[in-house]
Every structure is written in structure tokens, then in C-alpha cells.
Amino acid sequence: MLSRIRKLVRNNQETERPAELTTTFYDIIGDVHGQAKELVALLKKMGYTKTQETWSHSFRKAVFVGDFISRGPSSRKVLTIVREMVQNGTGLAILGNHELNAIGHFTRNKQGVPYREATGSNQRMMERLKAEYADDPLLLKETIKWLRQLPLFLDLGGIRIVHAYWAPGNLQLITQKMVKGRLTKSLLNELFNVRSAFGDAVRQTTRGVELRLPRDFIIKDDKNIRRTNFRIKWWEHPEGQTFKKISYGNKFVLPNYTVPNEFLFPFRVYMPNEPIVFVGHYCIDSGPLIPTGNICCVDNCVANGGRLAAYRWSGESTAVEANFVFQKKFKS
Fold first, then answer.
1. pTM for the complete prediction?
2. How buried is residue 155: exposed, middle or buried, by Cβ count under 10 Å (0-12/13-18/19+)?
3. Non-local CB neighbours of 241 within 8 Å, separated by 6+ positions
4. How far apart are CA 329 and CA 39, in angstroms?
5. Over the stretch 113-157, which tens digit does the pLDDT of each residue have?
6. pLDDT value of residue 3
7. d(CA 253, CA 20)
8. Could you tell me which residues are beta bridge partners of residue 49?
């Protein structure tokens, strides 16, 4: 029966729930980044319909991997869609680093100061988000409070969902610290403290594992900004590998030199026998979205001219390219 459902998924033909189906199947949606038109089109393409309450599917559930705000023109509309789906039980969502940026910027402590005020390009994104709520600033405040109730990861049995890096030690600490699954204001002090173990765990969970570049490497990204760190494949052991081979999701070219041992540090490598873990964050516009059978990136870089991606999971233990559905970015 599962093979029949998977075939229908690949052909985007499933419309009614098979009578014998009892397992929930998931559509894991990548970083939306405020692209509401593309999100609506993707949901329709996957057979979701809109009622007065929310978007829903007859037997599938959407899962958002975080970073549904910022960069694009319609973060407010995307937030409305995601929130309605979560509250009505037709979707799930976790936090990405951009949601944490918004939480830090718009949540104030007892002195009326933001827990972490955004700077540079992040500040401009926060100002655009604020402008979208110019007619209802109280709704923005309430929406930010709602974001603080979202989890940072999901373990759904056959699959795992995290924005950037799955490490049981980090996730255990996060679970222990969060109060009834919420980011309380007292926790925000720890979250944005550079010397906090909890802050480190959240940063790796939402930003991935990064290695430092040698000082004599002058490397700039596609926006001509010098980079001092780079993201790596946390499902591979880095020892003896080159900068280029161990990198993943970096918008700059790394050399083929072996990474010196002094630039390495211990981290938990995700093993091949573990369940599929779905991530966003890495903005893979070229290169493998499935770098290995149990690692699947659903961020196809819609924020930078790519496509909005979703992976239709129907019980398989190994990710396959045929289960992706894409929505091209509309011309503005």
C-alpha cells in the first residue's frame, strides 16, 4: 500500500485519504522568507485547499522548517498562513534563525531594551517586518509572543525536523531549559548571551556547525563581504578533509587545502543509520539537496531567485529526489 501512495505522491495525484491509511504523512516545506505568493501556489500544487479557517490536506500535514519571515515582501501573510495551520492542526512549524532575530529585536526587557537589537542587513529586515504591521503594531507584538511558543526541533518518529543541525546533546539541553516548550523572557537572556551553553546549543541548532577560516585566507561571498567562518557537513567526520569538500551551503569558493587540526573542534556527527533529518537554512540553489540518504535540505533558495521547495514524505527511510515539489519564484 505504501508503494502505491508513494507513486501517487511522485505524480502529485493523491486527493483522497486511502481507507487503509492510518499513518500521518508530511510535506516538509523549506525556508519561505516572506514569499507568500509562492507558498500559496506550492500548497495548491500539493493538493491543499483553503477553508475559512486555514489551509489543509485530506490526509497530509505541512511542516515548516523555519525562516518563514524576512527578505521577501509578505512576511506578515506568511506568518498568518503558518500560524493558522499550526493552530488548526493542519501544520507544524519550528523556529529558524530569522525568527530568533525577530524575537530578540522586538521583545523588550524590563528596562525597555531589546534582548538583541538587530544590526546591518538584519536591522533593515526587521524594519520591513515592522512596516508590514504599521496598521496593527499590537498584532506584531502578539505574533512575536506566539513565535516564542514554537519548538526548535521535531522528532516525528520516522523523520526529524531541525533548521540547521541535529545534535542530541544540544536538543536535550534545549528541552530541559525551555519552560513548557516556551522561550520565556528569562531564557532570552541566556539565548543571546555569547557565553551561554544554552545560547550555543540554540545557535548550532539554528545555524549549523561552522569552522573558522585561517586569518590569511581572504575569502568574500557573492555580496563581496569577507567571511571568517564557513558551514560544514555535520554528517561527515572533518579530519583529513579539505575546506572545499567539507563545506556545505556556502556562497563562496573554498580552497582544496586540508583543514588544519587546530581549526577543528568536537561535534556530534550524524550517523548513516539514523532517521532522515530535514533541514532548511543552507540555501542550496545548486548542488545536492540530498547530500546523503538521511540528510535532506528543503531550502532551494527562493529568497535569492531560486525555488520554494517541499519534500513529500510518505514513510520511506531514505530520501529520494523524486519526492520534491518546487514552486518557481514569481516575477515581481
1. 0.93
2. middle
3. 258, 259
4. 10
5. 999 999 999 999 999 999 999 999 999 999 999 999 999 999 999
6. 54
7. 50
8. 56
